[in-house]
TrEMBL record, chains A, B:
InterPro entries reported for this sequence: cNMP-bd_dom, cNMP-bd_dom_sf, RmlC-like_jellyroll
Domain of life: Bacteria
Native source organism of the sequence: Gracilimonas mengyeensis
Cyclic nucleotide-binding domain span: 36-115
Protein name, entry field: cAMP-binding domain of CRP or a regulatory subunit of cAMP-dependent protein kinases
SUPFAM superfamilies registered for this protein in UniProt: cAMP-binding domain-like
Gene3D superfamilies: Jelly Rolls
Length: 191, 191
DNA sequence: AAAAACTCTTGATATATATCAATGAATGTG
DNA sequence: CACATTCATTGATATATATCAAGAGTTTTT
């Protein structure tokens, strides 16, 4: 149940057994089924979720009620709305379960306790957020000013794993094109 | 010369006098003039820059040679290409001086020394990157799927300071529209 | 097994925005 | 001060992509 978490921590920092036990017991396991919501628009995000198994995605709804996918999270990834988590303000985002999942939930109090008590945990978190920032910046570069075809090519190059696990219309939303356009881009690809 | 840096640190963490001295002396001051380059495409980013005074911006060049603005940095902000800084690989970005500037430069060795030696510095960095991540995610939301007019409205709402200090064509690039379109959006606004 | 809901594809049309081009204003430079 | 750059505006046109609409194939639900 905690394999992915342990693996993720060990990839970036070294923990004593005692530190690991303290981390481990700060999380609460939670199973969720496809289509369930981890967070809904208007809620305050009070917890961080670590994905042990399965897949989640977050999105906002535009004025016409269309989903605007923000990001996906698979095994070994974190998911939350950090803005709401840190500010305590209601979120504009929904987090929905894409595949039946096993999550490890960490509430704010425990998160802060770990940051204080376990220095490698704070280091881990710095590195994780750093990496997420770099990836996100790359995404901004790919979102602005590219054609639909270029966006799709870059997705294939940079995040091929998404293609097998995520419905095409969510991919379309993620790269900021309509589902029809993505379908046509893919169509012209096969010729 | 170190006012902004001290202010930025104190906003997020508490440092002993000794820790502050250690931080301070790890930086190297550097003056730069408008149009000079802090980093050029193909270079490896080996330093973090903190802006004491002035303004910088980073951008990549698309296939047609047009600038694609990634971000701006004013007093109290950090600037670097983190991807290149952490991986040691050559950057695709240019960092150019927008207004004559006073920078504080921190090389990788000193950065890592501070992370090790000064716990509040690591905490500061975690928080800074966290905040940058939240801001960047907001930007992705604003970049994808909005009309030119909506993008401009959100920029006014969220980063009004940019408008006074940055030429309009760079703003246009930053929000991902052509300079002509931005000009027209602004024009229709004044009526 | 039938019905319902979801997903992808394909076609026709509309539209927002890029592109091309010219002009004038503002700014910097020898 | 003349000259060259840079910058913003405006018009005409082209084009990529959204939107609207229908149908076929899947998957899910009852």
């Amino acid at each position: 149940m905690y394999e992915q978490l342990k693996k993720s921590l060990q990839e970036h920092v070294t923990l004593s057994d005692k530190e690991w036990e303290l981390c481990k017991h700060s999380f609460r396991p939670k199973r969720m089924l496809k289509r369930q919501f981890l967070l809904q628009e208007g809620d305050v995000c009070r917890e961080l979720a670590f994905v042990e198994k399965g897949a989640l995605y977050s999105y906002s709804l535009d004025m016409s009620g269309n989903k605007r996918v923000i990001r996906f999270a698979f095994e070994g990834w974190w998911m939350a709305n950090l803005q709401s988590f840190f500010t305590g303000k209601p979120t504009r985002l929904n987090i929905e379960v894409l595949e039946d999942s096993e999550l490890l939930i960490l509430d704010r109090k425990n998160h802060e306790m770990l940051l204080e008590q376990v220095p490698p945990y704070e280091r881990y978190h710095r590195i994780i957020v750093q990496n997420a920032y770099v990836a996100l910046q790359r995404r901004v570069e790919n979102a602005l000013g590219l054609t639909a075809e270029e966006k799709y090519e870059r997705l294939i190059a940079e995040s091929p794993a998404f293609l097998n696990r995520v419905p095409q219309h969510l991919i379309a939303s993620y790269i900021g094109v309509s589902p029809e356009t993505l379908s046509r881009v893919r169509g012209s690809y096969n010729r």
